[in-house]
Amino acid sequence: MGLPLRDQHLHTYGEYLSWPDELRYELIDGRAYAMSPVSMRQHQAIVGELFSQIANALQGHPCQAYVAPFDVRLPRGNEADEAIDTVVQPDIAVFCDRGRLDERGARGAPDWVIEVLSPSTASHDQLLKRDLYERHGVAEYWLVHPGDRLVTVYRLLDGAYGKPHVQEFAGSLGPTIPGGVQVDLDLLAGALAD
């Protein structure tokens, strides 16, 4: 099940900035997709646990983690911010190039994106956003499946995501970004049990 479109018009980041804050949307190639208004408790528990582990592990390293809502603008080229037609809010985005960060969020692809799946966003994250992140050069994309207690990892190789690595919520798993981050997946299982 996909997320409902706001309408059938093409939009830009300039328009997006004028929309009410209580209505959350992402723009993908100009199309506005409504985001889930409220996250489920388990979704929040998983995002919180992941963010805590990653942010703590990155202290003193050049990479920095951000948690939604945090606008990530993905330009096609050198267009002005207001003309950008893609802006997403990943659950967690890690940037190693701090030159991409600004007061509005970030302009350019994160090095690592994590999306925690929920029933209303699963197909959107697994298909549309996976293709988007691949196209924009996100080096690593993790899909966390709380219901199945699995993490699916896509790594960019020669401009494309190859066959994903799938791991249960057990042991540890680390991204390819610098900093030696290792996510304790047993703690994710514990966050669901609480």
Automatic annotation (TrEMBL):
InterPro entries: Nuclease_put_TT1808, Restrct_endonuc-II-like, Uma2. SUPFAM superfamilies: Restriction endonuclease-like. Signal peptide: none annotated. CDD domains: DUF820-like. Residues 15-184 form the Putative restriction endonuclease domain. It comes from the Bacteria. This is Putative restriction endonuclease domain-containing protein. It comes from Immundisolibacter cernigliae.
